[in-house]
C-alpha cells in the first residue's frame, strides 16, 4: 500500500510540476519554426511567469553580439516590464510591443546559444 501511495504522489508531482524556462523557450522555438516569433506568443507561452521570463529574454540579446540598434528595440519592452514589476501590477504590454516579432531562424539561434547557459 505504501509503495502505491509513494508511486502515485511521485507521478502526480511530476505531472504537476511547471516547465522550466529553458523548456518553455525550446517549445516556443520549435512552435515558431518557419514563422515569426512574436512577443505575444512568448507572453502566452510563459503565462503567469511572463514577467521574469521576458526580463531575461529581452536582456540576454543585449549581452550577445547583435546588430547596432537592437538594444534600443529590446530596451523598450524591458523598461515597460520592469516598471510594472516595481509597481506590483500584472503584466500588460501595448499592442505595438506584443506584435513585435523576429524571424524564427534568429529566435532559434538566440535560444540555441542561450539554453546551455541558463
From TrEMBL:
Pfam families linked to this entry: ExoD
Lineage of source species: Bacteria, Pseudomonadati, Pseudomonadota, Alphaproteobacteria, Hyphomicrobiales
UniProt-recorded name of the protein: Exopolysaccharide biosynthesis protein
Domain of life: Bacteria
PANTHER family: EXOPOLYSACCHARIDE SYNTHESIS PROTEIN
InterPro entries: ExoD (IPR010331)
